[in-house]
Amino acid sequence: MRLLIVGTLGGQLTTASKIAMQGGAQVTHADDIEGALRVLRSGRGADLLMVEVHLDIAGLIQKLQNERVHVPVVACGVETDAQAAVSAIRAGAKEYIPLPPDPELIAAVLAAVAQERGDLIYRDDAMASVVKLAEQVAPSDASVLITGESGTGKEVIARHVHKCSNRASKPFISINCAAIPEHLLESELFGHEKGAFTGAVARRIGKFEEADGGTLLLDEISEMDVRLQAKLLRAIQERVIDRVGGTRPVPVNIRILATSNRDLAESVRQGHFREDLLFRLNVVNLKLPALRERPADIMELALFFIKHYSEANGVPVRPLSVEARQALMSNPWPGNVRELENTMHRAVLLASGGEIGVEAIRMPDGSPLSVSKGAAERAAQTAEAVTRSFVGRTVADVERDLILDTLDHCLGNRTHAAKILGISIRTLRNKLNQYTDEGISVPGPGEARA
């Protein structure tokens, strides 16, 4: 996450900068609008601008549009700047952050812009095989095409490839081809020269040059216009780019990753995607399975999101009830990991009592999960998911998970867990001591695993 802070506000923006850096953001400062534009043109780039509310935000946004720079802007000011805040929002600012800065609010804004935290959480063998392949090809410079349904975590895998590559210390630059208007995308990717078009008052470095030495992720590349695909193909083949309005090629040293939630082979047949570009991108294909195809990940991710959002909202981490677990396992999750994350965020907020019950597992409109499924269908799907999660695993691993999940359900009560498992309390304690010696977290009495 790259943050550009514009203005001073008596040092309060410096405090905001420190908070952002504590959250993992890379922060650059500019004293005024022209300084901010120089930073953006130089190739250092930014994913978000935090701008002092009394600066000319309307003028800044107009200049960004004129120079075809696509970056969100939020305004910052003291809490008494109500009218200035309204004016900034009307001018095109996405949000207003009152100062002195609130750490949780700044973290929330950064998370909303970043969209993906980059946590790679998995347990299912189907996902493990994809991660293994990703790590195997990461050290090379081969282009990688990452495919899968929306919400499966394609950008998370892309960042993992970069972290495992020889370019890990260099920039990782991501651009969403679907989120940027067609007439702006070329300049975003390749940059432009002064005078290339009306509004191009200075040279601007694009994403290809920003990523020099590192990795460039072309997110949702299937949405790129065919005419621009030809220019992209040349850049990949020859490792040179042409800035808009430029007269000489610019060499770049980057590794290309691309994602798509569409069948690109079908797009080729329909004439919407160049076949030669697909061949260049698809040296290695990482196909992410849908969440319904990796059932062992559902509970792993659910518990991770519960812990994350409980801590973020200042509430205790509560275990899932048996009924809630069954509801999660029986749901088809058409929105995949992203839908599960939002569902668990709601569940953390809606739950009452000592555990998260099925009544807290709801759709955005308040309806229960899988309301259209009959009891028999839900039971069959749950049974299938549980069975599939056993395949390829050792008996010892399955036994360990069964024991720990049962102990988790009993909130650490050894006696109750032993009765449910049908083993002696002595056998259970011996197993738990073994797991502890192996470095595995075992809940104590009255505790549950997060």
TrEMBL record:
Protein name per UniProt: Sigma-54-dependent Fis family transcriptional regulator
PANTHER family per UniProt: TRANSCRIPTIONAL REGULATORY PROTEIN, TRANSCRIPTIONAL REGULATORY PROTEIN FLGR
Matching InterPro entries: AAA+_ATPase, AAA_lid_NorR, CheY-like_superfamily, Homeodomain-like_sf, HTH_Fis, P-loop_NTPase, Sig_transdc_resp-reg_receiver, Sigma_54_int
Origin superkingdom: Bacteria
Leader sequence residues: none
Organism for this UniProt entry: Roseibium algicola
Domain Response regulatory: 2-114
Keywords: Activator, ATP-binding, DNA-binding, Nucleotide-binding, Transcription, Transcription regulation, Two-component regulatory system
Calcium listed as a keyword: no
Keyword Transcription regulation on entry: yes
Domain Sigma-54 factor interaction: 120-349
